[in-house]
Amino acid sequence: MNILVTGGAGFIGSHTCISLLESGYSVIVADNFCNSESKILEKVMEITGKRVITYEIDVTNEEQVNSIFKNHQLEAVIHFAGYKAVGESVNKPLDYYYNNILSTLVIARACQMYSVNKIVFSSSATVYGDQNSPFVEDMNLLPTTNPYGETKAMSERILMDMCVSDSRFSVALLRYFNPVGAHSSGLIGEEPRGIPNNLMPYITKVAKGELENLNIFGDNYSTVDGTGVRDYIHVMDLAKGHVAALQNKKNGAHVYNLGTGYGTSVLEMVKAFEEVNNINIPYKIVDKRSGDIGVCYADVTKASRELNWEAQQNIRDMCRDAWRYEKYRSSVKV
Ligand code: UD1
Closest residue (by CA) to atom 6 of ligand 1? Predict the structure, then answer.
């Protein structure tokens, strides 16, 4: 069964390709490598011993996307391709709306035209906005504070409306919490360009000595130690969540939180990283980051009940695997 994976060379996309191949699917990747590299897909093939067919195309290009649908009998599409930097989206809103919305429209129209009735969409917990955790799928969505979040909410809406109008479709809208870690081989992982915005890649750069210290954004939230709390999920657990969503054939659009269901503070994460990897992570407490919320974690009962999926790996696994990958990157000078 052929699965088209848009953005398959990205962080979550590449790990999902591994889970798909290991579950017996054939994988076709469409990626323009604007924020990734084609060699990641070579690593995916090395890890799995299976082939990935790759199209270097832009998913906003309808003609190029349609040609993939013509060339291959597709079972489903997993749509990851999109811009994802929250801060950048505030400075370049039109790029974000153009790229992220148009790609969803192009994929949805191609699916309709070629009767590919299953779509799994990469959404984000950011669509919940600043509400009390745990976040439950049927909560009203609040406007997010940035265009990136809006593109996720709008794309969800587009796919929901498509399902209302066309009952053949089965769409899973997956709201990710905070994906971290790397494949246990250490061959693929997260590759942010420049100075990382997210916590785990920043910690691994400090561990490596490339950055002097971690800046912890605020220590007076109403949390266990005052630092921000998030629901970190191992990227391989997240990858498996996509396979579970793919196998669920229920018609209509269905939203699922993919998280672990518990929160970890920044200081708890630093401590876990230090203990597991036996490395000191110097840090400073600095001002809150604008747009941050104090606490964000998932209610995961729906995914467990309907997809028969639960995250298996804990914070220590995430810290170990993230660091293993960072060391591998340094050794091969990626
Ligand atoms: C961010 C995005 C979210 C995206 C997710 C991907 C925002 C508002 N949200 O979530 O849309 O899906 O990344 O994983 O940007 N922290 C520090 N120091 C740092 C970096 C982070 O203290 O150098 C803290 C943050 O304040 C937060 C926690 O670590 O409490 C996690 O931050 P981060 O990894 O950036 O993720 P989110 O902001 O939750």
Answer: 178
250 and 221 together in one domain? no
Same domain, residue pair 221 and 169:
no
For ligand 1, whether the C-beta of 199 sits within 6 Å is: yes
Q: Which of 222, 262, 226, 258 is nearest to 240 (CA)?
A: 258
> Which residues, given as ranges, of the chain have pLDDT below 70?
332-334
Q: What is the pLDDT of residues 244-286, one digit of tens each?
A: 999 998 999 999 999 999 999 999 999 999 999 999 999 999 9
In a domain? residue 189: no
Selecting among 55, 96, 128, 148, the annotated active-site residue is: 148
For ligand 1, say whether the CB of 205 is within 6 Å of any of its atoms.
no
Protein residue closest via CA to atom 2 of ligand 1: 86
pLDDT tens column, 130-185 = 999 999 999 999 878 899 999 999 999 999 999 999 999 999 999 999 999 999 99
Query: Which pTM value belongs to this model?
Result: 0.97
Tell me the residue range of the domain where 306 lies.
Answer: 199-230+262-330
Note whether 271 and 221 are same-domain residues.
Answer: yes
What's the CATH number where 282 sits? 3.90.25.10
Domain end, chosen from 258, 274, 298, is at 258
Ligand 1 centroid to residue 289 C-alpha, Å: 9
Question: What is the per-residue pLDDT for 268?
Answer: 98
What is the rounded distance in angstroms from the CA atom of residue 291 to the CA atom of residue 64?
Answer: 37
| Residues 217 and 287: beta-carbon distance below 8 Å | yes
> What CATH number should be reported for the domain holding residue 144?
3.40.50.720
Residues 126 and 243 in one domain: yes
221 is catalytic: no
Q: Which pLDDT belongs to residue 194?
A: 87
Long-range contacts of 85-88, Cβ-Cβ distance < 8 Å, separation of 24 or more: 85/148, 85/197, 86/126, 86/146, 86/148, 86/149, 86/197, 86/291, 87/146, 87/197, 88/148
Q: Residue 285's CB: how many other CB atoms inside 10 A?
A: 15
In a shared domain, residues 287 and 246? no
